[in-house]
Amino acid sequence: MTDDRMALIELVEKQADGDLVREMLAFAAERIMEAEVEARTGAAKGARTALREVQRNGYRDRDWDTRAGRITLEIPKLRKGSYFPSFLEPRRTAEKALVALAIVLEPMADNGSLQKAYVHGVSTRSVDDLVKAMGAGGMSKSQVSRLCAEIDERVNAFLSRPLEGAWPYLWLDATYLKVREGGRIVSHAVIIAVGVKEDGKREVPGVATGLSEAEAFWMQFLRSLADHGLRGVKLVIADDHKGLRAAARRVFNATHQRCRVHWMRNALAHAPAKSRTAMAAMLKTIFAQETKAEAEKQWDIVAEALREKQPKLGALMDASRDDVLAYMSFPREHWAQIASTNPLERVNREVKRRADVIGIFPNDDAVIRLVGALMLETNDEWTVARRYMSLETIARVTDNPNVRLPAVAS
């Protein structure tokens, strides 16, 4: 085995964990067994043809212990002779290669060659090595392509699923990935939306890519979420962006919360390096207040104190108070989560980590495929995790007419 292939397999092994991987492994194993048995029998399952060489005879169960966990296989039986899946021997190499093939592979291009393949950041240059490593000699590239297309369909189904119930809070953030376009390498914005539903749990309602974060792009993305059923949005948490603010207001009639963490960085950039620590301490006194009214009063005091020596900072504070303190109109129990885009930081780090291995994506579809698969895995984790917000507190910001938003002192 070459050093390149070993490096690829080691990378897959490190990243192969979780329920999604087990499910995808089982899915891929089933398709590979069907392809191998089809090659042995000379006919597809259930097909009546003179080319059939042997009949099927049901299935036998066999547990498959993988590094992602135990998987129960249904191995096809034949009336004459026997069949044993090629990927079970040798087990370790086959398992890692299966993980690489199973999660997210680019379907074959029109010219009949598998040009692009990646799984959670696995590079696309060793598809043939992966197929050989599986030991699946009876599996053609067209069959691999069919398998990959089915997995791709599942990712697309996740991203286009109906969005049910109310989503009071919606976080939006963009990260930039390099995409090859018309012979050039350009940076495309990848937008990930995360919301909290009326049951207090987080979900990923959508992902999109675009050349920029202009208002038209935000409008199109938010309308697509609305078309899938997203409703009840009260607060959109994101960086400062006039186009996003306008789109959120027009599509959802929602308030915009400017990320407090990013605002602090922008504010301190206006201060001399030697005085930033003192200025940061002054600004933090605003967010330590118990009520929105007290925070607004402290904001004005700090702005006035800084205005004479730091006019640019004073102007920034005058223009941004309402956006930065918007979260204080919502239940205090939620302030830590809704004051910034920090809940999306881990998600974005994972996207960048996987994308860095690929380097340059061939097109936007490839970006959506990788990010969509990662979001599907993340969404599954959140489904079985504890509630992000309690039912009692989230009920205060839903559209339930029997529940009122708590009054805020002014």
Automatic annotation (TrEMBL):
<dbReference type="Pfam" id="PF00872">
    <property type="entry name" value="Transposase_mut"/>
</dbReference>
<comment type="function">
    <text>Required for the transposition of the insertion element.</text>
</comment>
<protein>
    <recommendedName>
        <fullName>Mutator family transposase</fullName>
    </recommendedName>
</protein>
<dbReference type="InterPro" id="IPR001207">
    <property type="entry name" value="Transposase_mutator"/>
</dbReference>
<keyword id="KW-0814">Transposable element</keyword>
<keyword id="KW-0233">DNA recombination</keyword>
<comment type="similarity">
    <text>Belongs to the transposase mutator family.</text>
</comment>
<keyword id="KW-0238">DNA-binding</keyword>
<keyword id="KW-0815">Transposition</keyword>
